[in-house]
Specification:
single chain, mainly alpha, Low-density Lipoprotein Receptor, two-stranded antiparallel ribbon, binds calcium ion, Low-density lipoprotein receptor- protein 8, lipoprotein
Length: 83
């Protein structure tokens, strides 16, 4: 069965459970910096560059979420095309 609506609902939930992506905590870091989970500050451009700049890999973890969401969209498309 092709259920793209269900997949979109799933994507919506994924966005809801990761609210800190858009929060951009200005606590200690500059505006153009990303704050790691260990409170370290790195330049935003170091985020999602497949290199562990935070030493706890938190600058790369949000990227995995994006990849997962892109995969879900692809599965959505593929499952509809293959029916
Ligand atoms: Ca990085």
């Amino acid at each position: 069965m092709c259920r793209p609506a269900l997949t979109r609902l799933l994507l919506f939930h994924l966005l809801l459970i990761k609210p800190h992506i858009a929060k951009g905590s200005p606590k200690e870091c500059e505006e153009d910096q990303f704050q790691c989970r260990n409170e370290r500050c790195i330049p935003s451009i170091w985020k999602c560059d497949e290199d562990d700049d935070c030493s706890d890999n938190s600058d790369e973890e949000d990227c995995l979420q994006q990849v997962q969401m892109e995969l879900l969209v692809q599965v959505d498309i593929l499952s509809c095309n293959n029916v």
